[in-house]
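2024-03-11 09:14:02 INFO worker-7 job=invfold-0412 stage=load source=structure_tokens
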């Protein structure tokens, strides 16, 4: 009997879902499952019992909390698809809403991180899930396979003055060195590898969308920033701390 699958979205750009649908293996994937609920693709109005649920997007209101809890109740396994679902996502930058990860409201069985998740990791994860197997995410940081790593040491003495290089459009990775050594903020040291350094290869330092290898996202950022010298302007820039995950504050409405 084919496993029953649920796919749904909360607040998101639908980029994670689009990446899933764009996978070369997605047609074969659909042949092996009974897609019982997916508003993006299936005309089904009720959340049905299922073996595996994939939920993309962050939670921003009480209606979404109710939907998420209903999905959790009907699902044997529930996985957070993408950075928004796993950590809160780019909406964490907003001062108007409280963007929260799924795990703040329900127990999840795993995450598939990335903005959107890298194709190789996403394809491997869904195939493992179909076979009722446990998937594993990379356990090293992005620096471990970055071409700009060079002789990078753990102690950084260069003052960080920028979040982007001046000439990223003319970036040449073969003739460049580590962003941090150039005084440009890069979260590679605390970010999980698995994205093949796509942003870095385009001249854009890592922003951390794959999340930390371990522990809490925000605490990793704070600990890392305590090791480097930041200009006073960057110390006040909330985008460093809230880019993908805003810390929970007592008294938050949701």
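2024-03-11 09:14:09 INFO worker-7 stage=emit residues=254
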């Amino acid at each position: 009997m084919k496993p029953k699958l649920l796919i749904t979205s909360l607040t998101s750009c639908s980029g994670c879902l689009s990446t899933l649908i764009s996978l070369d293996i997605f047609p074969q994937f659909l042949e092996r499952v009974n897609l019982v609920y997916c508003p993006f693709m299936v005309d089904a109005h009720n959340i049905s019992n299922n073996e595996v649920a994939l939920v993309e997007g962050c939670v921003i209101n009480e209606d979404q909390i109710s939907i998420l809890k209903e999905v959790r109740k009907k699902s044997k396994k529930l996985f957070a698809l993408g950075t928004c679902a796993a950590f809160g996502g780019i909406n964490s930058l907003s001062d108007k809403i409280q963007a929260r990860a799924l795990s703040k409201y329900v127990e999840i069985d795993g995450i598939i991180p990335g903005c959107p998740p890298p194709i190789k990791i996403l394809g491997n994860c869904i195939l493992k899930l179909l076979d009722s197997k446990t998937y594993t995410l990379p356990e090293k940081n992005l620096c471990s396979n970055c071409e700009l790593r060079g002789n990078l040491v753990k102690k950084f003495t260069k003052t960080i003055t920028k979040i982007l290089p001046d000439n990223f459009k003319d970036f040449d990775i073969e003739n460049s060195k580590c962003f941090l050594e150039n005084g440009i903020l890069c979260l590679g040291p605390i970010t999980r590898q698995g994205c093949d350094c796509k942003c870095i290869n385009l001249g854009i330092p890592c922003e951390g969308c794959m999340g930390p290898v371990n522990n809490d996202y925000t605490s990793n950022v704070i600990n890392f920033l305590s090791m480097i010298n930041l200009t006073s302007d960057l110390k006040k820039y909330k985008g460093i701390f809230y880019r993908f995950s805003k810390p929970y504050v007592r008294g938050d409405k949701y």
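2024-03-11 09:14:09 INFO worker-7 stage=report msg="The chain has a mean pLDDT of 89."
2024-03-11 09:14:10 INFO worker-7 job finished
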